[in-house]
Design goal:
The chain is α+β, with helices and mostly antiparallel strands. The chain has 2 domains: about 30-130, no CATH class; about 150-240, no CATH class. It has 9 helices and 8 strands. The chain has helices at about 15-20, 55-65, 125-130, 135, 150-160, 165-170, 180-195, 205-210, 220-235; strands at about 30-35, 40-45, 70, 80-85, 95, 95-100, 105, 110-115. Strands 5-6-2-4-3-8 form a 6-stranded antiparallel sheet, with no helix packed on it. Strands 1-7 form a two-stranded antiparallel sheet. Strand 3 (about 70) and strand 4 (about 80-85) form a beta hairpin. Helix 7 packs across helix 8 (about 205-210) and helix 7 (about 180-195) packs across helix 9 (about 220-235). The longest helix has 16 residues, at about 220-235. The radius of gyration is 21 Å and the shape is elongated. The two termini are about 30 Å apart. The relative contact order is 0.12. This is DNA primase. Keywords: Plasmid.
Length: about 240
């Protein structure tokens, strides 16, 4: 029978939960996180290979949140971090990342890194720096936009100096940047190109810039590029729900 994991009536201590699993009455255990508990779960999906290698993006997040406990997720394809602190207002989901502060976080006990008691973690600073690309570029007032950049090399130089320049550079180079699929990475770069190119009404210049990046590959059809660019325009114009 399904139960609400956030209902305290269904909560158990560690020993009680373990006993339920041993008896076969439960398939696993997890943490019931609440805002007043002082802990936040960071759930990173599709960042661990079958050989146990982590993506550069996952390793960077672990480095940015030092001293936090890290373990593999139940699927083995992701990792969970348990971070001390209170989650600020703002984003809760991004492609490949879920932040849990008022809900259920499964645990496996398959430790990748031990936590450090009393570790000083700047959760608020990390949260502010890692706002999803979509939230960083969608809906900016026109008066705050930079002048359009016409040449790919000039665009790359200017965009790389921006606050989210590292992410732009990784997407430009063809990296996943935490996105679960290549197409979502394509969409993120298209949105950023639209911003730096000044939202041109013609598709040609945006597509040419995209094809000058490391994301160009065999099998990209004009229909796919046109569809991805149309979706990026819709997100920026607020005509579609923002990803993540």
């Amino acid at each position: 029978m399904a139960v609400d994991a956030r209902d305290p009536a269904h909560w158990q201590g560690v020993e009680g939960a373990a006993a339920l699993v041993r008896s076969g009455r439960a398939s696993g255990v997890g943490l019931c996180l609440t805002p007043d508990l002082g802990w936040v779960g960071v759930d990173l999906d599709h960042c661990r290979s079958p050989e146990g290698e982590l993506t550069p993006e996952a390793l960077q997040i672990m480095a940015d949140l030092p001293g936090t406990y890290v373990e593999t997720s139940p699927s083995g394809k992701g990792v969970h971090l348990l971070v001390p602190g209170t989650l600020p207002d703002g984003w809760r989901r991004a492609p490949g990342v879920d932040l849990v502060h008022n809900g259920f976080l499964t645990v496996t006990g398959e430790e990748l890194r031990a936590g450090v008691v009393g570790a000083a973690v700047d959760l608020a600073g990390w949260h502010a720096r890692h706002a999803p690309v979509q939230l960083a570029v969608v809906g900016r007032p026109a008066a705050r936009r930079r002048a359009p950049v016409a040449h790919p090399e000039a665009l790359l130089r200017r965009a790389s100096r921006a606050r989210n320049g590292a992410r732009f550079g990784a997407l430009w180079a063809g990296g996943r940047c935490g996105y679960p699929s290549r197409s979502e990475g394509d969409l993120a770069l298209m949105m950023m190109l639209l911003y730096w190119l000044g939202d041109p009404p013609e598709d040609t210049g945006v597509v040419e810039c995209f094809l000058a990046s490391g994301r160009a590959r065999a099998g990209l059809t004009p229909a796919y590029l046109s569809r991805t660019l149309a979706t990026a325009r819709a997100y920026r114009a607020g005509r579609a729900s923002r990803p993540g």
